[in-house]
Write a structure and sequence with these properties.
Blueprint (H helix, E strand, L loop, with lengths): L13 H7 L3 H9 L3 E6 L2 E7 L1 H7 L5 E2 L6 H7 L10 H12 L4 H22 L3 E3 H17 L8 H13 L6 H26 L5 H7 L11 H31 L1 H10 L4 H12 L5 E6 L3 E3 L2 E3 L4 E5 H4 L44 H17 L2 E2 L21 E4 L5
Parallel strand pairs: 2-8
Antiparallel strand pairs: 1-2, 3-5, 4-10, 5-8, 6-7, 9-10
Helix pairs in contact: 6-7, 6-15, 7-8, 7-11, 8-9, 8-11, 9-10, 9-11, 10-11, 11-12, 11-13, 11-15, 13-15
The structure holds protoporphyrin IX containing FE.
Protoporphyrin IX containing FE binds next to α5, α11 and α15.
């Protein structure tokens, strides 16, 4: 019999979504025995989707726009006006290419090399101390991001930039004073980024990510305005700093799943760290959902989706879809080495086609940095002191409660 899209009982689900957080859509899907349902969020009618099949429906080429699909507060901290995520069709394709052309194998290797160097420098400060990786990594990642973009950190106020870039991510799910403070920091950061763009445009800087953004030609052959170029520069810097969150989660996994991870790394010298990183990306909570508004109408499960309809895909839940992942809740890095990994259900950074869709262009860069960091953590001598290792799911985004503290050995570690 034909599957239909059930409606969730109750008028609006916003409170449930906030209370259950990352698990909300999955919990309701389990109750309804359906991978999709309709409800209201923030009083607006929405269709929620979860799982590999639903992700294919959502990421069908050209079907969704991101415009009007996410709360304005999230957009103004994470992407802002004029950014690639707000474009569609050919304009999007050409802007997206600017990001993708930066992700060559050489530039991914460069990112790993820079991170290793910054990590070694930070180690001089960490040795003999207990640090929370949540607090220690933003500056390491900010220096890495600046260097990768071609901006020498010694000429910059790194703590200020680190505060801005990490607060944009940290406050994306907040309201009230925390959100307003983040918005103020975002404006300060944009002012700084516009200065970088103007400097690149008047000086000799053509290479590196900064040069590429400063001199990019859009679909109509024009350069980006200073404001939009600054937004796109922040679209490179901010998410590189965000990879630090995955590194915190990797340290958590190395500790909590050490019985699995240690022997796995020992017997998979070549690919082990990458596979552990993939399992961290699959299981640890980062982007809960992605919203889309229908651009090209379509029919699915006996329902007509019309232009402007709001659809929300559960990224967290799709990565745990039991229909395609064996023992989906088990931390098992070996699944990423086996042939036939269900790639269309590996959507922590979105899915579908990279060049024409909105899938994250920084996925390979994230994986490269995370792989390097797992190697660095595995080679380091440290203890994990008693602390609260729980990761609350009712908070976007989230951390281990005590920030993943480690006590680093003295001397050469
Ligand atoms: C888009 C997650 C790292 C740049 C996205 C999307 C997600 C995401 C969920 C939206 C996908 C969609 O709309 O369908 C993440 C996570 C990261 C990460 C969890 C790791 C911490 C990066 C990095 C970069 C980057 C390292 C660049 C250096 C972007 C850009 C977009 C995007 C520019 C917009 C793409 C478009 O609309 O076509 N990311 N990302 N991200 N990400 Fe990432």
């Amino acid at each position: 019999h034909e599957q239909r899209i059930p409606a969730l009982p109750g008028f609006d689900s916003t409170l449930g979504f906030l209370r259950e957080g990352y698990a909300f859509i999955g919990n309701r899907c389990a109750q309804l025995a359906s991978d999709t349902f309709t409800t209201r969020l923030m009083l607006r009618p929405v269709t929620c989707l979860r799982g590999a099949e639903a992700a294919d429906v959502f990421y069908h080429p050209g079907r969704m726009t991101r415009n009007g699909a996410m709360p304005r507060s999230v957009v103004s901290l994470l992407q802002d006006r004029g950014s690639v995520q707000g474009l569609d069709g050919r304009a999007h394709h050409i802007r997206k290419a600017m990001f993708l052309e930066l992700m060559t194998p050489e530039r991914l290797d460069l990112a790993r090399w820079v991170l290793a160097e910054e990590w070694a420098a930070a180690m001089r400060d960490w040795q003999g101390r207990t640090i929370a990786l949540r607090d220690a990594l933003p500056e390491v990642m900010t220096r890495t991001a600046l260097r990768w973009c071609g901006i020498p950190p010694e000429q910059e106020d790194v703590p200020e930039r680190a505060e801005e870039l990490s607060t944009m991510i940290e406050a994306a799910g907040s309201i009230g004073p925390a959100y307003l403070r983040a918005l103020r920091l975002r404006h300060r950061s944009e002012t700084w980024a516009r200065r970088q763009i103007r400097h690149a445009r008047t000086g000799p800087i053509r290479d590196g990510a900064l040069g590429r953004v400063a001199h990019h030609e859009d679909a109509d052959g024009s350069h980006l305005s200073d404001a939009v170029a600054a937004v796109e520069l922040l679209n490179l810097l901010r998410p590189i700093v965000a990879v630090g969150r995955y590194i915190v989660f990797a340290a958590h996994a190395l500790h909590v799943h050490s019985a699995t991870v240690k022997p796995f790394l020992a017997s998979n010298q070549a690919e082990g760290a990458r596979a552990v990183g993939e399992e961290v990306r699959r299981l640890y909570p980062f982007f809960p959902v992605i919203g889309g508004k229908v651009r090209a109408p379509f029919d699915w499960r006996g329902r007509s989706f019309r232009a402007g309809d709001w659809v929300v895909l559960d990224l967290y839940g799709t990565c745990r879809d039991g229909a395609v992942w064996a023992e989906p809740e088990t931390f098992d890095p070996a699944r990423h080495l086996a042939p036939g990994r269900p790639d269309h259900a590996m959507v922590p950074q979105g899915g579908g086609d990279l060049a024409t869709g909105h899938r994250c262009p920084g996925e390979h860069l994230s994986t490269a940095l995370l792989t390097e960091a797992i190697g660095l953590l595995a080679a380091m001598t440290y203890d994990v002191p008693d602390q609260d290792l729980r990761i609350p799911l009712d908070h976007f985004p989230t951390w281990p409660r005590d920030g993943m503290k480690i006590s680093v050995a003295r001397g050469r570690a």
